[in-house]
Amino acid sequence: MVWLTHLIFLSFLHLFRCDCVLNHQSLEEAWEKQLHKDLMKGYDWSENPNTCNVTEVKIKFLMKSFNLDSDTEIFTMYSIMIVSWTDERLKWNPSDYGGLTESYFFKMEHWVPFVEWISRTDFDFGLYYDECNVENTGYVVCSPRVLVETQCTTKMSNWPYDTQTCTLDFTISEYQKDVHLIPKGKRAVSMGGAGYGPEFTIVDYHQVSNTSDKVQLRMTFVLDRNGEHLASVIVFPAILLSILTASSIILDVSDRKRLLMILFSMLCHCFYLSEMGWEIPKHSVEPPTILLFYRSSMLLTMFLVFATVILGKLRNKETAPPAWVSSVYSIVLNSHGKYFIWPRWKTNIELLTSEDDDVKSVEVWNGFANIVNSVCFFFSVIVYSIMIPMCVPKQQPFT
Ligand SMILES: *[C@@H]1O[C@H](CO)[C@@H](O)[C@H](O)[C@H]1NC(C)=O
Ligand SMILES: *[C@@H]1O[C@H](CO)[C@@H](O)[C@H](O)[C@H]1NC(C)=O
């Protein structure tokens, strides 16, 4: 019997408690309902909060992520936009509404600022305020999630260490007069860790705020590409290939290794150029200079392949050389020019026969090939020492 009494008592208690919670909730809801009804009485949402005065709207973006697509040149920022203002018509006395000091408005019942961004892309995004918090002082805060996109002209000459500048322009719709967009705090954007993207890092930010201008708030982002990975597969090989090409010229033209080495360099050029085709951004005002470097270096290597084959033939020639070859030979060897002939090849001994004429011809041809090779060598060294500082991108100092 005792347990039955207990059970009945417990269920009563349960009922009572439930009732109490329900009552409490419905009471607050009732006050809130009454408040919304009273506030919206005669409220014209199309009129500015402060009919005679300018309405100041504070704006702040909490950046969640960003992206700059190098191919489409579109900069995207995904963030929470916090806008706040004071609406004199949304004031109330908390004691009149059961001590209620704040309330949520879930639909756009009251006035909201129409924040617009200029230079937007085809992708049109209508701003939708799903929820706003209103305090009894008339202070309204809305925090919609927004995805802002803008066209950003990219300059790729220093790719993969390029730096890009993207600008986002904000203003208030022309349908709302006398509304000023003002950044909340010193900066209108708070990035936190979101400034470190997978492809780019935001290294600098500045903003211009001028409420009398067409663009009320201009935010400029400076982005550095995280190019280390690309550099290791594209930039460092460029340096190695130029050393490989230039050092192959030091070898003797009769040495088979020289031709193999320079052909290998040629193949590597082709390989890296095709590799770069996958990685390189397609649409850009300025093409990457590293591309020019590879192309010029490939032309030079191609020229050196021909030079190697031709010089190899000339070096072993036994016929009497034409007069101009002999004169080039004697002019260079009888002047200071002979110190620039490096490396110096010895005449092939097997070719030498007893006849004096033959000995002389082989020596002249060998010397002539040697002179041409030295010219090729110094030419390549000069070309590379100009091209490497000019065309190979360097990492910008981090600011
Ligand atoms: C407009 O602003 C002035 C000073 O800032 C203030 O005295 C006045 O009451 C405001 N008027 C309205 C209608 O809010
Ligand atoms: C703000 O914009 C107006 C209109 O374009 C211009 O006349 C004024 O000089 C600007 N003010 C500043 C501080 O840039």
What structural class do the secondary elements suggest? Answer: alpha+beta
Q: Specify the CATH architecture of the largest domain.
A: Distorted Sandwich
- Using the coordinates above, name the CATH class of the largest domain: Mainly Beta
Main β-sheet: number of strands, strand sense, barrel status? 8 strands, mixed
Named once each, the bound ligands are:
2-acetamido-2-deoxy-beta-D-glucopyranose
Protein name: Neurotransmitter-gated ion-channel ligand-binding domain-containing protein
Pfam families: Neur_chan_LBD
Keywords: Membrane, Signal, Transmembrane, Transmembrane helix
Highlighted features:
399 residues, signal, binds 2-acetamido-2-deoxy-beta-D-glucopyranose, eight-stranded mixed sheet, 12 strands, rod-shaped, single chain, alpha+beta, Acetylcholine Binding Protein, Chain: A, 2 domains, four-stranded antiparallel sheet, 6 helices
What's the helix and strand layout?
Blueprint: H1 2-40, E1 55-69, E2 74-86, E3 102-105, E4 115-118, E5 132-135, E6 139-142, E7 145-151, E8 163-172, E9 179-183, E10 189-190, E11 200-209, E12 217-225, H2 228-248, H3 256-279, H4 289-315, H5 323-333, H6 356-391
Helix pairs in contact: 2-3, 2-4, 2-6, 3-4, 4-6, 5-6
The structure holds 2-acetamido-2-deoxy-beta-D-glucopyranose (2 copies).
